[in-house]
Amino acid sequence: MEYKIGNLKLKNRFLLAPMLEPNDIVFRLLCKKTGCGLTYTGMFSPLSKQKLILDDKPAIQLFGNSEKGIESFIKKYDSEVRLWDFNLGCPSKLSRKLGHGAFMHKDFETIVKIVKTMKRSTKKPVTIKLRKSPQAIELAKLCEPYVDAIGIHARTIEQGYSGEPDYDFALKLKKFVKVPVIYSGDVNEKNAKKILKDFDFVFVGRDAIGNPNIFSELTGTKSKVSFRDYLKLAKKYKLFFRQIKFQGMNFTKGMDNAKGVRRELINAKTLEDVEELVKTNK
Ligand SMILES: Cc1cc2nc3c(=O)[nH]c(=O)nc-3n(C[C@H](O)[C@H](O)[C@H](O)COP(=O)(O)O)c2cc1C
């Protein structure tokens, strides 16, 4: 079976949700290895000078409230990515202050300008990721002529990341548009396939953190990875030590001796300390 977003063919419908801190290059590579259909970076400003490593050929998510810098940013990285997404879902205090993400929903004109600019700048698919709001469905309709799919995190700004996602709201949005819809909100190993009866794709979010093997479970792929694989690649990509420790913490999820390992991770001062810890906790 072949699945498509615009002209992009995907091998399955399980996508890694954009997540700023967890989705570093190594984590994304591991998710790809375990079968993830498409990996996403976290949100990036097109004005950022930070060098992006894109060896997994991911989708890049952009954010901001103007089209400034978008065209040149897309031109710079276009050959290394598979899709471009725009963030209309971030609920953070900083986004509130700057009028980004989910705080832009009333500014139809700017949003349409941005997605038009994105569409004009690339032949790759362009998508938006919305959050539930009073304007979200109208926005989806307005953007539809310029986007190849629409993501919906079915929670409001006020809910942040907790509470029940509003599945019916996402279903309603799905009914209003013809482009594929990517559902986001508490997708896990148990419910993903059921959700895919109603939606075209799913974003696996927090359930993937520290657990890239969720994609092998979902897709039936044989390959399994561990923190040992993360560590090896993190050395190759020279990731910051604090990022390695952060992911180490994430990988302890579900471990029998999680508490003890976390304590040791907190105390680890060097990469060698972490390597030693991995050796003793096979
Ligand atoms: C640590 C973290 C970082 C996130 N960063 C982003 C981001 O950069 N862009 C975005 O669109 N959503 C971001 N999200 C939201 C997720 O993509 C997803 O929509 C949300 O977590 C709901 O899915 P879940 O309930 O399965 O976790 C983030 C979520 C978490 C937990």
Explain what this protein looks like in three dimensions.
This protein has helices at 25-33, 70-77, 93-98, 108-121, 136-143, 167-176, 192-195, 214-219, 227-236, 241-251, 258-267, 271-280, and strands at residues 3-5, 8-10, 14-16, 40-44, 59-62, 83-88, 126-131, 149-153, 181-184, 201-204. The longest helix has 14 residues, at 108-121. The chain is an alpha/beta fold and 282 residues long. Helix 2 runs parallel beside helix 4. The two termini are 37 Å apart. The mean pLDDT is 96. Strands 3-10-9-8-7-6-5-4 form an eight-stranded parallel beta sheet. A two-stranded antiparallel ribbon has the order 1-2. A hairpin with a 2-residue loop joins strand 1 (3-5) and strand 2 (8-10). It has two domains: 3-219, Aldolase class I (TIM Barrel, Alpha-Beta Barrel); 227-280, no CATH class. Helix content is 38%, strand content 15%. The protein binds flavin mononucleotide. Flavin mononucleotide binds next to strand 4.
Mean pLDDT: 96
Main β-sheet description: 8 strands, parallel
Spatial sequence of strands, sheet with the most strands: 3-10-9-8-7-6-5-4
Helical stretch tally: 12
What series of H and E elements makes up the topology? Answer: EEEHEEHEHHEHEHEHEHHHHH
CATH architecture of the largest domain: Alpha-Beta Barrel
